Amino acid sequence: MRHLMISLLPFTRAVWSRSLIAMGLGLVMVSGLYAADLTVSEHSFGCIKEWTKVRNTYITHADPQKLKDAVRIFKDSVPNKEYPVGTFLQLLPDEAMVKHPKQKFPETNGWEFFHLDLTGQGTKIASRGDQTVNFQGVKCMSCHQPAVQFDFVCEKGHGCAPVPIDDQQIAALQNKDPRCKS
After folding, report:
1. Phi, psi dihedrals of residue 118, rounded to the nearest 5°
2. Is 153 helix (H, G, I), strand (E, B) or coil?
3. Residue 180: which of 82, 73, 25, 53 has the closest Cα?
4. Are 158 and 143 in contact (CB under 8 A)?
5. Strands ordered across the beta sheet of 52-54
6. Phi-psi bin for 156: left (phi > 0), alpha (psi -120 to 50), beta?
7. Helix (H/G/I), strand (E/B), else coil: 113
8. pTM score of the predicted model
9. In the 8-state DSSP scheme, what is residue 180?
């Protein structure tokens, strides 16, 4: 019996070593996913017109390459492509959506929605999360759900119900952003 136990010892050590390595790699991968998350505060939002504009929507990202990727995805309406974590999108100055790792908001593929209170002094976050309600009193995700093929980003032709204001009204609201210095 002792001979059997001694002969199994190298095998047991190898199994334990590989198990520990696998567990360590798993923890690094999981922590890396959440480490890629970002902190969004009232200071994350400023004058909407300081961001990159594509059609009616303003886009920003702290990383210039990821901003370029997000703009391309939006501009070309690329289906089945996720926006980079850290992407901010705004159509109206008092509403926004921000991309986090999908584990943070699994129902919205990582998107967090924001309702913002705006003044000339800055931004106050009125509400945020995956259950946020828009200016019509409807949960943001209920309108964005039909755009699942476009990573839940709505635009004309993506199956989303259109906002009840036209392009000129959207532009007028964007131009009245009180955070922008005229």
Report:
1. -115, 140
2. coil
3. 53
4. no
5. 52-54, 57-60, 88-90, 95-99, 111-119, 122-129
6. beta
7. strand
8. 0.79
9. S
DSSP-assigned states of every residue in 66-105: HHHHHHHHHHTT-TT-PPPTT-EEESSTTEEEEE--TTTS
- How far is it, in rounded angstroms, from Cα 115 to Cα 97? 9
d(CA 173, CA 5): 77
Kindly report, residue by residue over 107-164, the tens digit of the pLDDT: 999 999 999 999 999 999 999 999 998 888 889 899 899 999 999 999 988 888 888 8
Among the listed residues 178, 148, 182, 163, the one whose alpha carbon sits nearest the alpha carbon of residue 57: 163
Cα(86)–Cα(99) distance, integer angstroms: 5
Tokens of 13: 């050590």
CA distances to 40, 82, 103 from 37, rounded to whole Å, are 10, 15, 10
Report residue 81 as tokens. 């492509």
Number of other residues whose CB lies within 10 A of the CB of residue 58: 21
